[in-house]
Design a protein that fits this description.
heterodimer, A: about 210 residues, mainly alpha, Cytochrome Bc1 Complex, Chain D, domain 2, 2 domains, 11 helices, about 50% helix, B: about 240 residues, about 0% strand
Chain lengths: ~210, ~240
């Protein structure tokens, strides 16, 4: 024992720590540029919440299929920098390197969007009126102006067609409260602040029914 | 002293409520605008000069108008009640002046504010949109006053020589940045005139404030009604040729 090299002795005494340390090294907690996994492997991580084709089946997790790639990239970058907050994404995004964003965004942007369904069909008609015409009395512009009549969106304004009601409601409420503040020039915050929760819910129900084929 | 302190506290407490109410109302006075020291109507800002120098494209303007049509509608005819003005046939110079001045805060317009921002429209897009709108035909009926007051309105318009700037047919003057007022929605004309008279429209022309300073509210209603009943100035001018 006394002849042992001091470092070996230390290793033995701290065997548990050593094993843990080696295990941590084997895991990819923080990605270095040189060990970016192949796209197919990385997609598994996203697919667990958003599904492989981006058509998440969990109402709280957004569908990201068919969305503008630039929009998806910006969101990932904002999650990474903390500008956009999400309890789920804040745990996931540190595992992904910024260099992977473009390929991931490209994959999901190219997927065929699935159809959506209203959670409460009774609100769809009111939602359609707001989406198409806005609410003149409270200066809410028609959503269709920017997001298109069919909700297909543009480079600047994201696709909303077929999105889960629960997700849209949550995002609109986050814009309203200011918790989500990664909208350029506070555009969506301005709109959401002019809407009450009932109006938000109605619009979200209508959005879910859109197919966005423009 | 105590009263003053109390008043200050009360005001501070009330401010956020007032701010919330005023969120979409355009009644706040611009600290840069009309009535402030050094305000000169028609001072061309750097951005306005930049936009005016750009070569516009009406087709690109139609696409860029996307961010505007949520309020001004797909056909740019606005809303009948005048909440949003019609923009069809408005002079490009006027649209450029108004958008850049809403953007700079000279004209306070909270409804429009985020949609006039540089995210919604770049300087090139402002030039393109302005060009696109100037070429558009008016396709929808505009909002008129509740009663036909055009005889009285016309008399006021002529007597006060409103036409020197806004033209005999309400056609405005593109070179001088005076807007087309013919066939505009009654509600919009009346609201803006009330703001101008009160001095709360930040980019008001002092001559205009003076001209309508002695108008009663009924006078303003009559002039707004008269202008709202005028036909599209382009049709009138085309006939005269």
């Amino acid at each position: 024992m006394s002849r042992m090299h001091p470092s070996t002795r230390w290793l033995r005494r701290h065997a548990a720590v050593t094993v843990l340390g080696l295990t941590l090294l084997a895991l990819p907690p923080l990605v270095h540029a040189q060990d970016i996994p192949p796209l197919s492997e990385r997609l598994q991580l996203c697919a667990s919440c958003h599904a492989m084709d981006g058509n998440s089946v969990i109402p709280e997790n957004p569908k990201i299929s068919g969305m503008d790639a630039g929009y998806l990239e910006r969101q990932m970058a904002d999650f990474k920098s903390g500008v956009r907050k999400s309890p789920v994404m804040s745990g996931i995004i540190p595992l992904v390197d910024g260099k992977e964003f473009a390929a991931l965004a490209g994959h999901f942007s190219a997927q065929k969007p699935g159809k959506g369904v209203a959670a409460d069909p009774r609100l769809v008609a009111e939602g359609k009126a707001i989406f198409d015409e806005g609410i003149v009395g409270s200066a809410v512009p028609a959503c269709s102006g920017c997001h298109n009549e069919d909700g297909s969106g543009t480079e600047k304004y994201p696709r909303v067609a077929g999105q889960h009601t629960a997700y849209v409601v949550q995002q609109m409420l986050n814009f309203k409260s200011g918790e989500r503040a990664n909208d350029s020039r506070a555009l969506m915050r301005a709109v959401a602040k002019r809407m009450n929760e009932k109006e938000i819910r109605a619009v979200a129900e209508y959005v879910a029914t859109l197919s966005g084929s423009e | 002293m105590m009263n003053k302190t109390l008043a200050c506290i009360a005001l501070t407490l009330l401010l956020p409520i007032h701010a919330a109410l005023a969120d979409v109302a355009d009644e706040r006075k611009s600290p840069l605008g009309y009535g402030s020291k050094g305000y000169v109507w028609g001072t061309i800002s750097l951005e306005q000069a930049e936009v005016m120098k750009l070569v516009p494209d009406a087709r690109r303007g139609e696409e860029a108008f996307r961010g505007c049509r949520g309020c001004h509608k797909r056909d740019a005819a606005g809303v009948m009640d005048g909440t949003y003005p019609r923009l069809t046939g408005q002079h490009a110079s006027v649209v450029i002046k108004q958008v850049t001045e809403v953007r700079s805060g000279l004209r306070i317009n909270p409804k429009m504010d985020p949609f006039a921002s540089d995210h919604a429209v770049t300087p090139q897009e402002i030039a393109d949109i302005a060009n696109y709108l100037s070429t558009l035909e008016t396709t929808r009926e505009n909002g008129k006053g509740p009663d036909n007051l055009s005889v009285r309105g016309k008399a006021l318009y002529l007597r006060n020589r409103c036409g020197i700037c806004h033209g005999d047919n309400g056609e405005g003057n593109a070179d001088k940045f005076y807007p087309v007022v013919a066939a505009q929605h009654y509600g919009y004309l009346l609201r803006e005139m009330v703001h101008i008279k009160k001095g709360t429209r930040g980019n008001s022309h002092p001559r205009m404030v003076k001209a309508i300073g002695k108008f009663s509210h009924a006078d303003l209603e009559a002039v707004a009604d008269y202008l709202s009943r005028l036909p599209d100035y382009r049709r009138v001018l085309a006939k005269g040729k």
